[in-house]
Amino acid sequence: MQLNFRRQGQGQTVILIHGLFGNLDNLNGLAKALAEHYDVVSVDVRNHGLSPRSAQMNYQVMAQDILALIEQLELSKPWLVGHSMGGKIAMMTAGLAPDLIAGIVVADMAPVAYTQARHTEVFAGLTAVAAADCANRKEADVILAQHIQLPGVRQFLLKSFVPKTTDAGESGSWRFNVPALLEQYPHVMSWPGVEPAYLGPVLFIKGGESDYLLPEYQAEVVAQFPRATAKVIPDTGHWLHAEQPQLFNRLVMDFLGKVG
């Protein structure tokens, strides 16, 4: 599968991989900062943005998408930076092809399977908006608010809303494939593990108020990524790159500079 991507800057390549319900614009602040020193490739993962749709969506196939992009662009040992689901894609890509990856940065995600469904309300809201045939984001927000209380979460989702006056693509009112994401959600929440361990440099960045990357996961982290280091951004949640962009960008750039 050939992913949609945007490229800017020059130097060693850094591939940026967004999370669930996102697109290549989600890490745009980091992309702009990195582009002053690096060749930055921002991607839409499958079933998101302008990338192709597919009924398959597990971490092995999503990692293969990244490896296909590396081959397509003839990249030499790029860095991978992934947020949330994108972090798992980065980890799996490094695990499948360690010799092709310089190292990875994982933003607020652990290499574990999550057993608790975290997006039930989100899927209900997305489905309701599609069924309501909303004409604009204001109408869509009214429908979303019936299912999702947090305005920040609704605003994040609405960035991918497509008004009905434009071409909404295969997934109706959204620039991601809601039916496929719902069907494949168990795979998104799962984790097959990295074995043998990836021995390259890895930075985990945790949102201080988030429960995705917890101390009890340390054994799993070390077993799969023995060279892992960790940083915590205090008073931030899961969207740490949006809540504390300057600090997040600095942590990523410091890590790339020190081990690059």
**Quaternary form:** single chain
Strand composition percent:
5-15%
Largest sheet: 7 strands, mixed
What is the CA-based Rg, rounded?
Answer: 18 Å
Please write the string of helix (H) and strand (E) elements: EEHEHEHEHHHHEHEHH
Shape: globular
* Secondary structure tally, helices: 10
Extended strand count? 7
Major sheet: arrangement of strands: 1-3-2-4-5-6-7
Report how far apart the termini are: 29 Å
Structural class determined from secondary elements: alpha/beta
Given as residue ranges, the uncertain stretches (5+ residues, pLDDT < 50) are 168-172
Mean pLDDT: 93
Helix content: 25-40%
What would you say about this model in short?
The protein is an alpha/beta fold and 260 residues long. The chain is built from ten helices and seven strands. Helix 2 crosses helix 3 and helix 4 packs across helix 5.
